[in-house]
Amino acid sequence: MHTDLKRKLDWIDAAAIFVGIILGSGIFVAPAAVAAATDSNWIAAGMWILGAIVAASGALCYAECGARLPKTGGFYVYYREVWGEGVAFVGGWTALLITYPASLAAIALILANYLQDVVPWGASPKLYAAVAVVLAGAINILGVRTGANTQRALTAFKVLALLLLCVAALTATPITPEAAVTELPLAIDNPTATLSAGPLTAAPLFPGSIAVMLSAMVILLWTYDGWSDVTLIGGELRDPGRDFGRTVVFGISVLACLYVLVQLAINTALTPAVAGRSQQVVADAVAVGLGTTAGRLVAVLVVISTFGAINGVVLTASRLGYAMAKDGAFLRVFAAIHPKFGTPARSTVALVIATVVYVIAADFGNLMAFFSFNVWLFYSATAVGLLILRHRKVGEPPSWRLPGGIAAPIVVIVTAVAMTSSLMIQDPKRSLVGLAMLAGGIPVYLVWRALFKVAPPMA
């Protein structure tokens, strides 16, 4: 049985995957929270740049780990080297059964809700979501180049389209708060897309307050999430040591510039007072320049943007099940490579099936809670793990080293503590459920080890 993946991807593919996964639906929501937090364009831009620094710190930690251990499997490989087979198993199984399928299902449901507005066929949103995930799975089974080329096209399209929408908003005549209630076109004729009720001359919160800014930062950081996924394809990059670092620097730079531009365009077209009360802030900003067609244009962009994220996650996350199966931490049958297409087809099918189950069985709020809490635990474990890899001189000298010493790992660890604490305070019940799911991997590991015996570390 053939079980080896070939190194067919370059840093352009990695960058398209990196940007395509991160640039999903968050940018269509977060600017409203930032506008509600501050009416200063400088402070708003600073918040986005701060988010980029946090994301870059985390992504670069993963990049150096990937340079030291350039194998398929990403964090699972790093955990096994640093923390041992038990932690790697629990982390891998949690990601395999909860984090990745739950996050994919959440993105697919967002796609489905917008697709209903574009193509009102009357089908259930969950059907649309399931079809999107199955389609992404099929694309990535047909070949890693098929999946990567699709990702290149989707990422390029949505970046260009978002830039064009920014131009439309920046060149529009700004709307006044008083006129917004009566004159702003409704996005896709949907009442839920209008500005929320209330006097727009007074923001619903207290702009500039620390508490509001921190709340906005939590939402803002969500728009940068997904920066760890590209390391899962380390075994398929031609030069992972060099490519990971280049991908992160390029990708975060593109995203930060794009996000700042989107925020400035929205603030220009709507003013912060209006933007802070908008429920579909990008559609409303574009509507000022393009009129009633804006809603459908933005809906189409959200559908394409979210499908790009789905395609990227399926491409990368399917490698986790493959790596674990090859290592003996998952059923060996999933370590097989398709004889014709050269992809981990069985692992991809398993990921698609798990995601469809989440689409059918769970709601969006629960899906977000299931993976939001645990993912920051993973990020901090990787940041600490990098420091341990350095201390043990694993992979020395690495083909690429994160500059700045311990600064980036410390940024990630501090942010992870803040995020998990915030989530625990705001939604303790769901956060505890997510933590319980993580802890549930411990007895699974003990049973698995007794029955199958986990294989020695991957060569």
Describe the structure in your own words.
The structure is a single chain. With 459 residues, the chain is mainly α. It has a single domain, classed as Amino acid/polyamine transporter I (Up-down Bundle). The chain is built from 18 helices and no strands. Helix 1 crosses helix 13. The two termini are 18 Å apart.
Quick overview of this protein structure:
The chain is mainly α and 459 residues long. It has a single domain, classed as Amino acid/polyamine transporter I.
How far is the N terminus from the C terminus?
18 Å
Biggest sheet statistics: none
List segments where confidence is low: pLDDT < 50 over at least 5 consecutive residues.
186-206
The overall pLDDT, averaged over residues, is: 85
**Proper CATH architecture:** Up-down Bundle
How many domains? The number is 1
* Continuous helix count: 18
The shape is globular
* CATH overall fold name: Amino acid/polyamine transporter I
Order of helices and strands: HHHHHHHHHHHHHHHHHH
Number of strands: 0
CATH class: Mainly Alpha
| Portion in helices | 55-70%
CATH H-level superfamily: Amino acid/polyamine transporter I
The gyration radius over C-alpha positions equals 22 Å
For this entry, give a set of tags:
single chain; 459 residues; mainly alpha; Amino acid/polyamine transporter I; 70% helix; globular
